[in-house]
Amino acid sequence: MKHFKTITVTIIAVLVSLFIADVAFMNALYNSIKERYIDDVEQCLRRADLIELIDRVNTAGYADENGVIELWLGLQRSDIGAAKTPEDLRRLRYSQGYKRMDRQLISVVNNYLYNTYGDLGTPDTELLAEAFRRELNFSGYFPTEVVIIKEGTHYEPTGSLWCITDRVEGQLLTTAYISPLARNVLNEMSGIIVINAAIAFILALAFWYLLHVISTQRTIEEIKDDFINNMTHELKTPIAIAYAANDSLLNFPDPRNQARTRKYLSAALEQLSKLSGLVENILAMSMERRKNIPLDKEDIPLKEFIESIIENHKIKIDKEYTITLECPEGSKVTADPTHLSNILSNLIDNSIKYSTEEVTIKIKANNHYITVSDNGIGIPEKYQPVIFEKFFRVPSGNRPQQRGYGIGLYYVKSIVEKHGWQIEVTSEPGNGTTFKIKFGKE
Ligand code: ADP
Fold first, then answer.
1. The pairing of beta strand 320-326 with beta strand 358-365
2. What DSSP assignment string belongs to 6-36?
3. Ligand 1: which of 285, 354, 371 to mutate, judged by most atoms within 8 Å of the beta carbon?
4. Which of 107, 120, 296, 398 is the most exposed place for a label (fewest CB within 10 A)?
5. Which pTM does this prediction carry?
């Protein structure tokens, strides 16, 4: 997992590049839609100019009694964007053809009227603005602000208004400012924005998940390395002690000194039982083994059984302690004695390990459950759901770290479930912890 950093950096670089490319694409799309809108809006302004001019021509009396102004126009085919052949016509999309004709006709009429009646006094800007606004509304645009500037007037636009112009034969006729139609543009882009956001979200989620998996793997890898190193050391000690005890009995036997023989054999036995507990814990970690742990069940008289475990622990407790057992005479359970003994030893060991100078352990047992309670340091609530996970250890914070590998409770839970039982924990930091093993439904 040395490449974790490289992978993370690459993923972040890919995400950032994708994001930049996406923003650039969106920006280009926004500008191209905006251009199309401006084109449309310019046409609205041209129509508004024409409407205002026709009104002026009418007022000046150049129209007949029905308000009709006669025009004499020579139109070329190209003026109205007509197609040269039926194929051309078929290729021309309706809106393109229509827009082009509309534009050409209006500009030809505009040019003619301006050339003929262009000197008919000052334009009516109010009417122009009204006509412009109406044309905009017809085309589906509803800007909040519309300002018309006629040639010769000065206007300082504020903010980000869009500037629209109308020219007749290259000469600027009218300038208009409208509030940006960004909402229209964004509405048109909404589909693509939503799809884009969804893809970005899914992509980010996928990358996040990938990194999460890699980082979890990395942590497990580190913990495993750590575990193997420590465990090798841990296994060596009992082997060395049992070996030495056996060796001295073999090489320097003293049949008269029964006490010495007993002492050495007990030491070897104790170390071997410690070793067997450790090996059981390690084996329980493999999933395969977890499924196939063979259970050699028998009826166990709980009181005597637990008493003997307590006696074994008393020998090795190296702090002030009180251990009590409350168990009705005749209580029993059907279980594998080796594993049940390991379970209880793990719980008692933890109570001793995770307590201050003085520990009180209360064990209660009956036909339905066993509880092991202590007055130790307790387990913060947020860690309680995960303490049974493989390799999990509560961070020690300021306290000195106790030796351990985070596999004791994992083993306990594996065996408890293998028996078809349940285990639960209740704990209050500073006040102590209780583990309860329920043999069946109470
Ligand atoms: P280990 O003791 O080797 O760390 P365990 O699986 O036995 O691993 O326990 C997991 C963690 O749960 C321990 O590291 C400890 O923080 C916490 N824990 C277990 N039992 C107790 C207890 N009786 N009191 C307080 N904390 C406990």
1. parallel
2. HHHHHHHHHHHHHHHHHHHHHHHHHHHHHHH
3. 354
4. 398
5. 0.52
